[in-house]
Design brief:
single chain; about 220 residues; mainly alpha; Cd81 Antigen, Extracellular Domain, Chain: A; 2 domains
C-alpha cells in the first residue's frame, strides 16, 4: 500500500469516526427533546414525537453507515467499501432532496406553526398546555400580558403554581409566540449546522471510499 492509499485509509476511518459521533449527538438531542418537550408535543398533537423518532432513525443510520465505513477502511475490504460508498451516496441524495423540500415549503411550515400556536392559546381546553409553556419559556400570553386583557393573569405568567395570584405588573413581559418561534428556529439552526457538517464529511468519505475500493480491488 502506497503513502496516498494509507493516508486515505486513515482519513476515511477518522471521518467516519466523526460521523458516528455526530450520529450519536443527533440521537441524544432527539431523545432529550422528546423527554423534555412535553408541552410542545401536546400543542403539536404529537408531531414533535414523530419528528424526534425520524431524527433518531437518521442518527442510527448515520452511526451504522459510519461504522461500516470504519470497518471497510481498517479491513481494506473492497466489497464493504463499495457497499458503504453506494449507501452513503444514496443517503446524500436523500438528504439533499429533504433540504430542498424544506427550503421550498419553509413559509408553509412557518404558517402552520403560527396557526397551531394561535389555536392552542385560544383554546379553553388547552389551559394546562399553555401554563406549561408559559412556565418553561417564562412568557405570558401570545404577545405579552396585555393579551389576556386583564390585570389578574394566570399564575404561570409569574412562574407560580396554580391557585396563586399573578398581577400584570409582576408578569413576564415577553409573549410566548415569539419565544416559541425563536426556540424552534434555534433548534433548526443547530440541526441544520449538524446536517451540513455531516454532509460535507459524507461527500469526502464517498470520494475516499470509491478511490480506496478501486485500489484494494487491484491488489
Amino acid at each position: 500500500m502506497g503513502f496516498c492509499e494509507c493516508t486515505a485509509k486513515f482519513a476515511l476511518f477518522a471521518f467516519n469516526l466523526i460521523c458516528a459521533l455526530l450520529g450519536l449527538v443527533i440521537i441524544a438531542f432527539s431523545v432529550v427533546t422528546n423527554i423534555h418537550g412535553k408541552p410542545f408535543k401536546d400543542m403539536l398533537s404529537g408531531q414533535i414525537t414523530l419528528v424526534t423518532i425520524i431524527l433518531i432513525v437518521v442518527g442510527v443510520l448515520v452511526f451504522c453507515i459510519a461504522f461500516l465505513g470504519c470497518c471497510g477502511a481498517i479491513r481494506e475490504s473492497h466489497c464493504m467499501l463499495t457497499t458503504y460508498a453506494v449507501i452513503l451516496s444514496t443517503l446524500l441524495v436523500v438528504q439533499f432532496a429533504i433540504g430542498i423540500t424544506a427550503f421550498v415549503y419553509r413559509n408553509k411550515i412557518e404558517d402552520s406553526l403560527n396557526s397551531v400556536i394561535n389555536q392552542t392559546f385560544e383554546n379553553d381546553k388547552a389551559v394546562d398546555i399553555v401554563d406549561e409553556i408559559q412556565m418553561d419559556l417564562q412568557c405570558c400570553g401570545l404577545d405579552g400580558p396585555i393579551w389576556y386583557k386583564s390585570v389578574n393573569l394566570p399564575s404561570s405568567c409569574c412562574g407560580r403554581t396554580k391557585g396563586k395570584t399573578c398581577f400584570i405588573i409582576e408578569a413576564y413581559i415577553g409573549g410566548c409566540h415569539d419565544k416559541i418561534i425563536d426556540l424552534v428556529q434555534s433548534s433548526l439552526k443547530l440541526l441544520g449546522a449538524i446536517a451540513i457538517g455531516i454532509s460535507v464529511i459524507e461527500l469526502i468519505c464517498v470520494i475516499f471510499a470509491f478511490c480506496l475500493s478501486s485500489s484494494f480491488k487491484r491488489w
